[in-house]
Design brief:
alpha/beta; Rossmann fold; eight-stranded mixed beta sheet
Length: 161
């Protein structure tokens, strides 16, 4: 398991980072976004969707659970599972059926890890309350995501302890 970090100084910085990540995403990729409310999960998602020229269609799936976007690379599914009480609700809504059909971005995905594949990219957000800085920690679960992260030269590799 490889871990990298990135210090974002603004929303625009986070969106530019997302643009770089998006250039490596492909059908079947799973990205789990974790962190407190307002820490930048949705901004990163907006940046990814902007890479695929979907900026005019972006809306939050907080109440709908999932938004589907059609891109030239295939469908992109943006989940917000904050309102789910447990992973069984994700299963009942057919959530697993989305996973291999396109790129899946799941905000609050740590709540449903028990029903997700073991290979995924996790991006954890923490924020500084004094300024607009956000620390993003990237954890690769699986060889594919280790390779993806190694292609992003601006990430700082963390020493495993």
């Amino acid at each position: 398991m490889s871990t990298y970090s990135y210090l974002s100084h603004s929303e625009e910085d986070t969106k530019q980072l997302a643009n770089s990540i998006a250039s490596f995403l492909q059908k079947g990729d799973l990205v789990i976004l974790t962190g407190d409310l307002g820490s930048g999960k949705t901004k990163l998602t907006e940046g990814i969707l902007t890479f695929f020229h979907l900026e005019e269609e972006i809306s939050s799936p907080t109440f709908t659970i999932v938004n589907e976007y059609d891109s030239s690379q295939g469908p992109i599914f943006h989940f917000d599972v904050y309102r789910l009480t447990d992973s069984s609700e994700f299963s009942e809504m057919g959530g697993e059926e989305y996973l291999n059909r396109g790129i899946c971005l799941i905000e609050w995905g740590e709540q449903i890890l028990d029903v997700l594949p073991s290979d995924y990219l996790q991006i954890s957000f923490s924020r500084s309350y004094e300024d607009s800085d956000r620390m993003l920690t990237f954890t690769a679960h699986g060889k594919h995501y280790e390779t993806l992260l190694s292609c992003l030269p601006f990430l700082k590799k963390e020493d495993m302890k």
